[in-house]
Recover the amino acids of this structure.
């Protein structure tokens, strides 16, 4: 269980094709995981996700703990059964959402007390509680409970690591289920020495996978890339590496170039709800008047259901008429777009042409 | 074109199985047409509708005229191409919406002037204008422009018929396309003599189909049934009969018993958006706390995508979390429910058991 096979490596970069074995199937990496915050990838049915080739999806511990409750999900057979996703699932630890969504939170060495963003009710998360909730949910990959500090406050991050590292030990201690892989989360902001310190601490524990947290939270693209360049030679080659919360196309390519295997992000689903379609080199806002009579699909070379059928003019009409189908069709396109990009990257790595693929691709995003 | 074959008739009632030939395929009757007001059956993709066996769908002239505009739809290849529905489409005349949705309308013998419910802009519909718009949209079945008066004001309805009947003649005169069937709309409220007068007027014109309008707008169930009992022996046997705006399950069965071939209604899609699932004998409101931990599907004998996969507990979670997927899955179930009821009625008519089917079915709605 949780074997990570490296199928092939790109000689010129850190990119590699892998196969991560989970109780609900093999994840071909590099992979993008669509986000199903509340046990649904917004606007998509599981059948739609399967049709577009999704393998891993992510769901949120903080949200599901608050609503409908992790014990309810457990009693209904666990998250796979509840949301009818037959493939692998990853749950985050709830830490990130506590620090970004909840109200009046109080952090101490043992955990964090907070108020629900839904109804203001009081709750407490500790490493043990996060693991217990994630065991009730039953995802294949679960995450260590940690703090996600602002990326450029050296003193604060250094202090935060002193909390987060012991919390990882407590997560490992609390973990009971053998059918779940617990990943540690390397923190350290934009500082190479702190990142290395955090990575070394976790590597000593020989975890089944390593996440990189605390990025895509306000630092520059160059700072993000520098962190990946720091960690690429340090993290063990034979374990999957997960860059949390990253989903901009250029960041996916830059991540794969630097040895990242797993990504997740709300970007494709969130952009869709803001009437925006992802296309090579940028975005289209379907609200714009220029698409009023445009008979073309969003992208002429896209094979998604939306592009195989509908004009930009029709999509614009659905957006302006505030129709639910606008969300369905734009989400379909955006998620397909990122899954297709990952397929192209896997194929280029297999063909030994990834460096050229990445250069051409990134030139479009310059 | 527009041949109506009667495949078999139920000896004991007015029910019949027919095949109505249209440029976009054959409609097996009796049929229920899901409503796609703004060129989309709310929350469903055309592929979903096809998978659940929809044949005819309805769209609204008033809405599409205002947004995105009938000329834009025409320029993009017509409504079938625009919304990517390959099967038959019916458009109403816009009359009903002008009288129910628009603001500060003024009716005269020639037509009606009104303000858009969207932006308050001023517009005028006449019989000629309604036909021109419907020809731009390009549906297979188009409707005569008429007034839909309150059902129980005898004097007003009598006067309204004096406007509506000449309008039908003007619609016929204005009509240019031979690939569209123009149906007349029998009005007359709850009054048998006015209904008969309206039907006789239209039958003299040998139209390809006859609609019954002005029902399901406030009269009692008994009054609706009485109108159908009046018209069943009068309307010609060899032409399709369309009961407009009716979609409650018991009304569908009562309509088929009285010779109705075509129905449409927003009920299944609207109920879905109000968290309500249609089930034999009634409705479930998925918001209710009683479904919080209910592992059952909405209906155990339902073969729709929703019931094949999801528990009431999951659907309730989606509803409370205000997830788009709640609308998608509940709409899928409700539309499937009515399409399946129509399939069962067609099968019972073919098997010569329709009277018994109807009695058993209606007993559940008593």
């Amino acid at each position: 269980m949780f074997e990570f096979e490296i199928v092939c490596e790109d000689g010129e970069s850190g990119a590699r094709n892998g196969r991560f074995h989970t109780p609900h199937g093999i994840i071909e990496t590099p992979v993008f995981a669509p986000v199903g915050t509340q046990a649904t990838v917004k606007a998509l049915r599981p059948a739609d996700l399967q049709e577009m080739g999704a393998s891993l999806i992510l769901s949120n511990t903080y949200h599901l703990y608050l609503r409908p409750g992790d014990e309810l999900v457990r009693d209904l057979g666990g998250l796979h059964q509840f949301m009818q996703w037959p493939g692998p699932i990853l749950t985050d630890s709830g830490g990130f959402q506590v620090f970004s969504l909840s109200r009046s939170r109080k952090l101490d060495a043992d955990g964090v007390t907070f108020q629900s963003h839904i109804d203001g009710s009081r709750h407490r998360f500790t490493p043990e509680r996060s693991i217990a909730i994630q065991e009730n949910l039953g995802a294949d990959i679960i995450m260590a409970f940690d703090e996600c500090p602002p990326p450029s406050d050296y003193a604060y991050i250094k202090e935060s690591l002193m909390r987060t590292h012991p919390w990882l030990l407590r997560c490992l201690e609390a973990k009971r289920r053998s059918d779940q892989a617990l990943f540690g989360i390397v923190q350290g902001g934009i500082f190479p020495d702190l990142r290395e310190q955090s990575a070394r601490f976790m590597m000593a524990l020989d975890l089944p996978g390593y996440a990189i947290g605390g990025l895509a939270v306000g630092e520059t693209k160059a700072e993000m890339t520098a962190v990946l360049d720091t960690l690429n030679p340090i993290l063990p080659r034979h374990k999957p590496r997960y860059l949390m919360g990253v989903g901009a196309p250029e960041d996916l390519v830059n991540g794969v170039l630097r040895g990242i295997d797993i990504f997740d992000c709300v970007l494709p689903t969130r952009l869709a709800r803001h009437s925006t379609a992802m296309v090579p080199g940028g975005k289209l806002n379907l609200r714009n008047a220029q698409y009023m009579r445009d008979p073309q699909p969003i992208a002429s070379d896209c094979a998604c259901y939306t592009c195989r059928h509908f004009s930009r003019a029709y999509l614009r009409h659905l957006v302006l008429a505030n129709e639910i189908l606008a969300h369905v069709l734009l989400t379909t396109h955006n998620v397909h777009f990122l899954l297709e990009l990952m397929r192209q990257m896997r194929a280029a790595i297999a063909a030994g042409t990834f460096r050229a693929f990445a250069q051409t691709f990134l030139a479009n995003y310059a």
Remarks:
- The CA atoms of residues 213 and 244 of chain B lie 6 Å apart.
- The radius of gyration of chain B is 20 Å.
- Chain B has 15 helices and 16 strands.
- The interface with chain A takes residues 38-40, 42-47, 67-68, 72, 75-77, 82-84, 292-293, 295, 305, 309-311, 313-314, 316-318, 320-321, 323-325, 327-329 of chain B (CB under 8 Å).
